[in-house]
Amino acid sequence: MQPIGAQHDFHNPAYAQDWADRFVPTRARQALFDAIVDQLTSRALPNTHIVELGIGPGYLALEILRRIPGVSYEGVDFSEAMFAIARARLADFAGRIVYTQADLIRDDWTARLSQPPGAIVSTWALHDLGGEAHIAAVYQQARAVLPSGGLLLNGDFVKPNESKFAYEPGRITPSRHEEMLRAAGFRDVARLAYLEKDVENPTSANNYACFAGVV
Ligand SMILES: C[S@@+](CC[C@H](N)C(=O)[O-])C[C@H]1O[C@@H](n2cnc3c(N)ncnc32)[C@H](O)[C@@H]1O
To answer: What is the atom index within ligand 1 of the atom nearest the CA of 82?
Structure first.
């Protein structure tokens, strides 16, 4: 049996559009966005610039820009094809958003940011980096670039702690995410949501959780 996961071709415009058309916000996915917006609005951030790692087609960005009027936004991604889709979706907010091309594995993405972030967010992206070491590196880079009081919120596909199935290497357990956030120096590490959890019938699109850490 194949490990639970998916192969992507995010640089291919047709593939990117097809992915965006299939992965529309459902009620459960919307609950992940709600958890992230709640966190961003329930505390005083050190500044109002929000950076998203892996902006993709812009579904999370649209929620944040619509619901939090005072923030500026920066979408990091390595895919021009995804930027084209996001730009169209977010056209009404063009004055509040910048797009920064970087590979989260190979580039020093923190050095490319247009201004210091008050929060770094991500949804369904970091597992695509292909393994725990790359996720840990991104957590460390985020910790280093966020000022005191800054917030990291990562909603991503996980392997349930109790699963007996093989998962692709980027889908790690919630416990590992929490350990890695603490090891990177985040405090108040918390699991905010655990959505579409299905230990016995895992697919490439269920089992995702949202983790928070504060600098
Ligand atoms: C599932 S999409 C993100 C969806 C997005 N959060 C939303 O709400 O619409 C994952 C994104 O991560 C990007 N990505 C994957 N690996 C990457 C890497 N190594 N560096 C930068 N971006 C990457 C892909 O191009 C894709 O746009």
So the answer is: 27
pLDDT the model gives residue 108: 97
Angle subtended at Cα 128 by Cα 134 and Cα 204, rounded to the nearest 5 degrees: 135
Is 16 in contact with 81 (CB distance < 8 Å)? yes
**Ligand 1 atom 2, closest CA:** 56
Q: Is 122 exposed, middle or buried (0-12, 13-18, 19+ CB in 10 A)?
A: buried
Can you spell out the DSSP letters for 54-86?
S-TTSHHHHHHHHH-TT-EEEEEES-HHHHHHH
Strand 72-77 relative to strand 97-101: parallel, antiparallel, unpaired? parallel
Percent with pLDDT over 90 in the chain: 98
Tokens 């610039």 identify what position? 49
Domain assignments of the chain as residue spans, ordered by start = 28-214
CATH 3.10.310.10 fits 28-214, yes or no: no
57 pocket-lining for ligand 1 (C-beta < 6 Å): yes
For residues 100-124, give the mean pLDDT: 98
> What's the predicted TM-score (pTM) here?
0.98
Residue 155 beta carbon below 6 angstroms from any ligand 1 atom: no
pLDDT tens profile 170-180:
999 999 999 99
Query: CB neighbours (10 Å) of residue 139?
Result: 24
- Tell me: pLDDT of 1 over 80: no
What residues form DSSP beta bridges with 30?
Answer: none
- The rounded Å distance from CA 2 to ligand 1 centre is 22
